[in-house]
Write a structure and sequence with these properties.
- This protein is α/β, with parallel strands linked by helices.
- The protein has helices at residues 42-57, 81-89, 104-109, 118-127, 159-181; strands at 30-36, 63-69, 112-115, 136-138.
- It has a four-stranded parallel beta sheet.
Length: 182
């Protein structure tokens, strides 16, 4: 069901900073939200890949990372099994994530709201309070060499679609990290 976006607090999930379990963490230097339609394929993949990128390449950065969907089709569900399998082959665990719907509070809570495609970008722009619209960007802006603007939805395709999504997301994650380190 596609109910309207509620004005509710953004849920708290892990920071993804790469700090050891039990470590005391400082306030995050940035808060990043990845968004696709259902929050079971592309955005949880981006969340997992970016967490791993932070852990392996910039563990000193304290970045809060989360993902959400523009629609409520899969709220509470884990990521798609095919996305989990493809990510696991690259050493990335998505199993702890659960789908949630983006809320209006997310626009003030996150520094960057990264849409996986133009449709989700338009949806986010339409529901965001005007003062936060500049925070909404396409994720692949951080991967200009990819030669495309959108991360394609692999949901109705085969396993190769999930691998391609990982390739794009890995490239964009490196670009996003470089952006945060400037």
């Amino acid at each position: 069901m596609n109910e309207s976006i509620e004005n509710r607090p953004a849920p708290e999930r892990g920071t993804g900073s790469g700090a050891p379990a039990g470590a005391i963490e400082s306030a995050p230097s940035a808060r990043i939200l990845f968004v696709c339609m259902g929050n079971i394929c592309r955005s949880p993949t981006a969340e997992g890949v970016f967490r791993e990128t932070l852990r392996t390449r910039a563990p000193e950065l304290h970045v809060h990372v989360d993902s959400a969907g523009t629609h409520a089709y899969h709220v509470g569900e884990p990521p798609d099994r095919r996305a989990c399998r493809a990510a696991a082959r690259r050493g990335i665990d998505l199993s702890g994530q659960r789908a949630r719907r983006v809320s209006t509070a997310d626009f003030s809570a996150f520094d960057l709201v990264l849409a996986m495609d133009e449709d989700n970008f338009r949806t986010l722009s339409g529901i965001s309070p005007p003062e936060y619209r500049s925070r909404i960007r396409l994720f692949l802006e951080f991967a200009p060499e990819a030669g495309r603007d959108s991360v394609p939805d692999p949901y109705y395709g085969g396993a190769t679609g999930f691998e391609y999504v990982l390739d794009l997301v890995e490239e964009a994650s490196l670009g996003l990290l470089a952006h945060l380190q400037r």
